[in-house]
């Protein structure tokens, strides 16, 4: 979501803080399940963009040898460092953003993106960076909220973004066609699930999502 992280950053509003506190008190079991499913079967070296406070770390399988979590916000990074200490795999937390990743070319087996491509300024540039750091045949694991396939609901999303959501959550746009952007960046989908989940009425415009695995096309 906001600024390639969860709900952090200089544009963070009271609304965003409210959502973050609520999630800390009562973790959403469906969201936890979606994170876990997004990471199932991962292997090798992984880079997670916009890792936020590290809420996904507990779900990395033992087959992952190392994770580098990239997060631009210092408050979120601090929380992520604490979660990394008790994660089941080695995790390093670094400063950076999706437009200029702190990683060598062709250096990771997989990139993870959860709630990030909705908020980056330039999705095409971010996806080009993901291509750069992936090894040949590397994979992108994603769980991203996206624009609805329902035209009427898209109007609700567009109105919500304009009136409240994007400003309140640091640039998050619920109307982005992230599925199309991933395909246009040269990835092919190996698994793609479309769904609808919201933890409350406050976040219903972000409920449509895509989850899956995409691999660099040969």
Name its key features.
single chain, alpha/beta, Rossmann fold, seven-stranded mixed beta sheet, 6 helices
Measured on Cα atoms, how large is the radius of gyration? 16 Å
User: What proportion of the residues form beta strands (DSSP E)?
Assistant: 25-35%
Strand arrangement within the widest β-sheet reads 3-2-1-4-5-7-6
The total of beta strands comes to: 7
Descriptive report:
- The chain has 6 helices and 7 strands.
- By secondary structure, the chain is of the alpha/beta class.
- The protein has a single domain (14-216), classed as Vaccinia Virus protein VP39 (Rossmann fold).
- A 7-stranded mixed beta sheet has the order 3-2-1-4-5-7-6.
- It is globular and about 45 Å long.
- It starts with 13 loop residues before the first helix and ends with a strand.
- Mean pLDDT is 88; it is low at 1-13.
Brief summary of the model shown:
This protein is of the alpha/beta class and 218 residues long.
Architecture blueprint of SSEs:
Blueprint: H1 14-25, H2 29-39, E1 44-49, E2 64-70, H3 74-85, E3 91-94, E4 108-114, H4 123-133, E5 134-145, H5 151-168, H6 178-184, E6 187-196, E7 208-216
Parallel strand pairs: 1-2, 1-4, 2-3, 4-5
Antiparallel strand pairs: 5-7, 6-7
């Amino acid at each position: 979501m906001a600024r390639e992280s969860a709900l952090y950053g200089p544009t963070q509003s009271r609304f965003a803080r409210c959502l973050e506190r609520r999630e800390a008190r009562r973790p959403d079991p469906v969201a936890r399940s979606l994170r876990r499913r997004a990471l199932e079967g991962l292997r090798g070296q992984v880079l997670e963009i916009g890792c936020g406070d590290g809420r996904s770390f507990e779900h990395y399988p033992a087959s992952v040898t190392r994770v580098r979590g990239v997060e631009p916000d210092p408050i979120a990074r601090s929380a992520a460092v604490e979660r990394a200490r008790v994660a089941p795999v080695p995790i390093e937390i670094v400063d950076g953003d999706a437009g200029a990743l702190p990683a060598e070319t062709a250096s990771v087996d997989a990139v993870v993106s959860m709630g990030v491509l909705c908020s980056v300024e330039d999705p095409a540039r971010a996806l080009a960076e993901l291509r750069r750091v992936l090894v040949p045949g590397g994979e992108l694991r994603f769980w991203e909220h996206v624009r609805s396939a329902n035209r009427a609901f898209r109007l609700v999303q567009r109105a919500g973004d304009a009136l409240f959501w994007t400003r309140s959550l640091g640039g998050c746009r619920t109307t982005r066609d992230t599925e199309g952007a991933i395909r246009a960046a040269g990835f092919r989908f190996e698994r793609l699930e479309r769904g609808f989940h919201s933890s409350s009425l406050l976040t219903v415009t972000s409920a449509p999502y895509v989850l899956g695995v995409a691999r660099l096309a040969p």
